[in-house]
Write a structure and sequence with these properties.
about 170 residues; mainly beta; Immunoglobulin-like; 5-stranded mixed beta sheet; 13 strands; Ig_NPHP4_4th; Ig_NPHP4_3rd; Major sperm protein; NPHP4
């Protein structure tokens, strides 16, 4: 059994559970990266033998994170201690069909319904953002990213300034 792991909490490796491997065989893993920093870092991804805890392989990944290119700023008013949903309009500015991935700088506090949307040319759709406020954490800002699935490039980045009231 092989288990993948990372030296950074910003890298989520799937499968997260141990997986059976044939001697000399190949395994596929997917790494999701969600940075919460700006700058250069080195991150290690490792594969270990679950039974013996011996290191099988290790990869070093160089990451350079730049500040998001904010395209719109919103003020969002939220009631304290109650989960709330707002609608965010995502537009396809192209004349051809495109798929977009919507992600968040703090997925533990904002759930995105339909995080991948496919839109015909020049069409728009409302995507629900659910702010999870029952945990008592009050973030001052959340970034929402709209990424082109085809080329993984940022299309939009929205800054949501969060204002809390009773």
């Amino acid at each position: 059994l092989v288990r993948f792991g990372s030296s950074s909490k910003n890298f989520e490796v799937h499968p997260s559970d141990a997986i059976a491997a044939q001697f000399g065989g190949t395994l596929n893993a997917v790494v999701h990266f969600l940075p919460n920093f700006i700058g250069f870092r080195m991150v290690l991804i490792s594969a270990t033998d679950e039974r013996t805890n011996h290191l099988l392989y290790q990869w070093m990944i160089a990451v350079n994170v730049q500040e998001a290119n904010i395209t719109k700023i919103f003020e969002v008013y939220l009631q304290n201690n109650r989960d709330q949903t707002i609608a965010l309009t995502v537009k396809n500015r192209y004349s051809v069909q495109r798929s977009f991935r919507i992600s968040c700088s703090h997925p533990e506090y904002v759930r995105i319904e339909n995080d991948i949307v496919m839109l015909s040319g020049h069409k728009a759709i409302d995507v629900s953002l659910i702010f999870l406020l029952n945990n008592g954490v009050k973030l001052p800002e959340v970034l929402i990213f709209v990424t082109n699935v085809e080329n993984n490039l940022q299309e939009e980045a929205y800054s949501m300034k969060l204002i809390y009231h009773d």
